Amino acid sequence: VIRPYKIQPNKHLSRKDRADLILLAAFNMLVVAPMLCCPIFEAMWNCIQGSTRQDETGEWRWVQELLIKVPIHALIAELWFYAVHILLHRSAFLYGTIHKIHHRFTSPTAMACVYAHPLEFAIGNILPIFLGPALTN
């Protein structure tokens, strides 16, 4: 159904490439994110917010949450992701040891966005999701 809209119609992943992509992406999403990032970033969030952290029993101020904080969260996430990405490209060491993994595939696929070194995935992909709420409570 979507094959006619493929940007690079003659580029396809081999079975080995597809398996590598699925394995690293699954490792990042099923191990790195929940078992490494969540506990570390939760501790970071508690250090930033301390006892002032808003909980579920407090009154929800939808205007403040949706119209002010969500755009701030999106801006923080985009700026952090961009800054990390630029840093990974500008440093030959970081590019060669960490970021080059992400650029292995020249044919764009949806899962290739999480096909990254676990450190890049944690700091560049997952940390931005936590930063906005951690900074704005």
Please, could you describe this protein's structure?
Helices cover 65% and strands 0% of the residues. It contains 4 helices and no strands. It has helices at residues 15-49, 62-90, 92-97, 118-136. The model has no long low-confidence stretch (mean pLDDT 86).
Please provide a brief summary of the model:
The chain has 137 residues and is an all-alpha fold.
The amount of beta strand, in percent, is under 5%
Characterize the overall form. elongated
Low-pLDDT parts are none
How many beta-strand elements?
A: 0
Order of helices and strands: HHHH
- Terminal-residue CA separation: 44 Å
Radius of gyration, in angstroms, nearest whole number: 18 Å
The helix-and-strand class reads mainly alpha
Mean pLDDT, to the nearest integer, reads 86
**Largest beta-sheet details:** none
Continuous helix count: 4
Helix content: 55-70%
